[in-house]
Amino acid sequence: MATRIRATATAIAVFSYGAHASLRDPSVSANDRSGAPAADAIERKISDPCAVVPPRAVQESALVGASPVNPLDVLVVGGGATGCGVALDAATRGLRVGLVEREDFSSGTSSRSTKLIHGGVRYLEKAIFNLDYGQLKLVFHALEERKQVIENAPHLCHSLPCMTPCFKWFEVAYYWMGLKLYDLVAGRHLLHLSRYYSAQESVEHFPTLARKGKDRTLKGAVVYYDGQMDDSRLNVALACTAALAGAAVLNHAEVLSFLKDDVSERIIGARIRDTLTGKEFDTYAKVVVNAAGPFCDSVRKMADKDAKPMICPSSGVHIVLPDYYSPQRMGLIVPKTKDGRVVFMLPWLGRTVAGTTDSNTTITMLPEPNEDEIEFILDAISDYLKIKVRRVDVLSAWSGIRPLAMDPRAKNTESISRDHVVFEGYPGLVTVTGGRWTTFRSMAEDAVDAAIKSGKLSPTNKCVTYNLRLIGGDGWDPSHFAVLAQRYVRTKKSYWGKVVPEAMDTATAKHLSRAYGTLADRVAAIAQNESLGRRLAHGYPYLEAEVAYCARNEYCESAVDFIARRSRLAFLDTDAAGRALPHVIQILASEHKWDRSRQKQELQKAKEFLGTFKSSQNAEFHNGKHK
């Protein structure tokens, strides 16, 4: 084994020298900016703190206006990370772009991730022991993209140290060597160097970690670094950035059917229904990109009812626990539990997220975790903690569907890939699926390349998204929160109607800065000038002003849009989200001019949505539950 590892390490070192020298050499990069004044103008608009996204009505009008004689270049179906990434990539290449999403941006898999931006330590292990060059390339590529995601949205992403506890001296040597290889593969895209901590140092950095367990004693831990994000806010930032770049993005708009050419039967557009108003219309495009995630097979069957399924859905369940389960700046990852699965505990937005499971599932709009999966996670983490792990501590639990893909062109149809697949399975319909959050940008780039080839499109420049800062990211600095705290106050109306000013406390200022980047000043100004400075839920920094801001500037069209995707309250604390609902709906009603019937409907839909999150209050208790 040692000989194989040494040989593989040598090969990695040689490969990494060549890979890091040529993989993103500016002279051969896809981000060749020569002759691209339009791209420069778009970047200036995105970085302008005064720029405002077009209203939803304007976006819909742009789609309605796409006709057979004046079609869009690209119509994207799906508003997850990949779909919004495709829209942004295509728009910044000077193409005319539209995007429709049946629910909301990030309403599916993209908001239910592990919250990690990672290169894939497990894939590196497979590459070494299977001598799999393909897996090794995946890790190289993911580590490169990991660094770029963090740099392009610095307010929404950051590096996170992750501790791997070792209970045998062999594990210390094994994980230390493996994670040093991980550092080596990252090369110039390295976040921070991994290192070994003694048992004493380990519990100092992770106080709830148990030093002794069942017939074992902690020998130490190896700490390495990966990235962490606020996934749905990153997704919304992609959608808004694409809108500023000129893409007509429309959430709550469903594809009913495809339009085909009478002679060639090539897809030339789609019949769309605005699910908020019931309005139906046709929009035309030279190419349609299917980025519907787990639902991409159903989109493919709209074009060809005989299309063979290519998605193998896998369920991943996560739970959220109070902050005392993990320190603020250290995660815990166990690569192999007693039954061979991976388990982790990570600090996230002031709470602890733990997971995950990986099991077959059926595709549904609102997947729900079952009690057995929640108990598995609680049992798994309890083996590594000195505190009692209780079911009543679960603030929220959710399930996400991973769209693992089989390439329909592959000879071996049994092979399921964690990599992405891009292909044109029907004339005019390019499908992109598989992959993971970390590599969404390169997935989008490949999909747009395929769309350009399919539609014989004429972009004004090559891909520019590699170094493109998303909205709110340009000029952002970690100390920005201090400026907010000094510059603004939170004003709120008392129960007697009197306007009461309060200080912009540090926790709220940090939250606004991290969630909105340089645009946080706009939110703070609303809190100060419109008396919307009250917190929506006790113990959480979300403000009334955020509801108004998101309704005006982030296409927030429903109560669920806000509690789940613009804020993360539903994911952090389901019960707190339920208590905040009436006030959220009241503010949205004022912004969108809802009548009482619509408000009642919003409350009902939001309660049904929260019912799929299994907190301790709505758990399905049975024998064997954690007490």
Labels describing this entry:
627 residues; alpha+beta; ten-stranded mixed sheet; eight-stranded mixed sheet; 39% helix; disordered N terminus
Number of helices: 20
Distance between the termini: 44 Å
Helix coverage percent of residues? 25-40%
Summed over residues and divided by their number, the pLDDT gives a mean of 90
State the low-pLDDT regions, or none: 1-5, 10-35, 621-627
- Shape assignment: globular
Structural class: alpha+beta
| Largest sheet entry | 10 strands, mixed
Percent in strands: 15-25%
Query: From the alpha-carbon coordinates, what is the Rg to the nearest angstrom?
Result: 24 Å
Number of strands: 22
Structural write-up:
The protein has 627 residues and is of the alpha+beta class. Helix content is 39%, strand content 21%. The chain has 20 helices and 22 strands. The strands form 4 sheets. Strands 3, 4, 5, 8, 13, 14, 15, 16, 17 and 18 form a 10-stranded mixed beta sheet that branches. Strands 1, 2, 9, 10, 11, 12, 19 and 20 form an 8-stranded mixed beta sheet that branches. It has a two-stranded antiparallel ribbon with strand order 6-7. It starts with a helix and ends in a 17-residue tail after the last helix.
How are the secondary structure elements laid out?
Blueprint: H1 2-22, H2 37-47, H3 56-64, E1 72-77, H4 81-92, E2 97-101, E3 116-117, H5 121-129, H6 133-152, E4 157-166, H7 169-186, E5 195-198, H8 199-205, E6 212-213, E7 216-217, E8 220-229, H9 231-244, E9 248-251, E10 253-260, E11 267-274, E12 280-290, H10 296-303, E13 311-321, E14 331-334, E15 343-348, E16 351-355, E17 359-360, H11 371-382, E18 396-405, E19 420-426, E20 429-434, H12 440-455, H13 480-487, E21 489-493, E22 499-503, H14 506-516, H15 520-529, H16 544-553, H17 559-566, H18 569-572, H19 574-592, H20 596-610
Parallel strand pairs: 1-2, 1-12, 2-9, 4-14, 12-20
Antiparallel strand pairs: 3-8, 4-8, 5-8, 6-7, 10-11, 11-12, 13-16, 13-17, 13-18, 14-15, 15-16, 19-20, 21-22
Helix pairs in contact: 1-7, 4-9, 4-12, 5-6, 13-14, 14-15, 15-16, 16-19, 19-20
